[in-house]
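Backbone shapes recur. Consider a single case.
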Amino acid sequence: MDKLIQSIEKLKPYFDVIARNKYLKAIKDGFIASMPIVLFSSIFILIAYIPNIFGFYWSEEIEGLLMKPYNYSMGILGLVVAGTTCYNLTKALNRDMPVDNPINEISTMMCAMVSFLVLAVDSIEGGFANGYMGSKGLLTAFLVAFLTANIYKFFIKRNITIKMPDAVPPNIAQTFKDVIPFAVCVVLFTVFDYFFRKAFGMCFAQAVIQVFQPLFTAADGYVGLAIIYGAMAMFWFVGIQGPAIVEPAVSAIYYVNIANNLELFQAGKHATAILTPGVQMFVATLGGTGATLIVTMMFAFIAKSKELRAIGRASSVPVIFGVNEPILFGAPLILNPVFFVPFIFTPILNVWLFKIFVDFLGMNSFMYILPWTTPGPLGLFLGCGMGLKVLILAAALLVMDFVIYYPFFKVYDHQKCEEERENGMGEVEEEEQQIEVDAATLKSKRILVLCAGGGTSGLLANALKKAAEEKNIPLISAAGAYGAHMDIMKDYDLVVLAPQVASFYQDLKADTDRMGIKCVACEGKQYISLTRDPEAALKFVFQILEGEE
């Protein structure tokens, strides 16, 4: 097993390259930026259709009123994502552009949205059809975003633009500078759209869905599900945020499937598509990647090792809400040979059991999107429209996860107990470094902590805030998600990367160097230790900031 772990760990640099791929990152960051639309729209869907389960139906007028915000938000998701993906890709491309000649991110965003409409929308009397402006147009949105950003780069890098005299204000000059690449993009997509419709009799967005439909079907099978969720867990096991690599490749399938499931449910049919955001958040990663909810509770309540018991109890609340980095790095579970098998295979078996309930027991798959911080069993219950079968599945998942993890937990618990007996005190003692914190160094400083979704980063941000308040130091700390940080980063003095996004350090450093601020990446064990010790967290940022004084 150790040799297997070592061989996987040797591939980590290659996994890092994949995780840092600018196109995958642009998709991920584009979705992060559009999440308010997804979560906002889901509120109205839940209000509109959850009562149906109990035999209550709104009048057509009320139902139409509730669905209007949904249709005008989720119904244009593809349009929005075309813009946000292009915006984030342009930011990545600007790292290779001269500082005095960047690509205008706002211009590329608007151009991508216009170009998307050209390829995805059919004209109808009095306006245009919105059938592919939503989740069904996501694949087209990605393609348009990639092409638009690169067309702009081609023209801006070679200065093929309209140049205005120096006396013209910069904002006016920038408008004229963007005219040529904007026009070229829209004209190219318009010409392509004309000939494509002539040849195939449909819009490009519809054709893309038809071409990829076999892939969607294959991904929804047992083998496809195993590859997707096994890969997520394996990447995380070597310390790389798995969804950052896998999710961009399946995100379009997720949102097409959730929309199809809802349509089937509204029509009184069986919602059968498995690959949805809810399956990832509340089934495969029940309690976080690796389905760690149960093993955390084992640590907290039945472990004999004092260290594991303390880690489990400290991690329980975050893990209930899907933030499992405290247990991943605190136990640790990642790169721990004892937990390799359950960590990889529990998510796969969870999804397979879910699929069995949908395929053979008639349970509806996920129809609604909920915040990822919703406790797993509750997210499963609400996302699948409630019902007795969903409750039985939630209980069955917890029991199955306990059975899978228990033998490996017992082995690790025994190992830790032996270590504690050898130490003599029954506890692992850590050497404490004495560092005096100078309040003047930290005065009016702002610290931004970034993780994948804004959950783990909150643990360290709160620890810093607590220590600063206790010492009466005017330090400001905030948490955020990597990918949604570019517009606020300039307002901070130090950016701290949580372990799951540490692979993005080089990209972040390139951005912070341009802004004249500092950044640092934390290792797993170190990060969890800092979240549990506010004073140590304060000393940590002091050491980083002291170097600039």
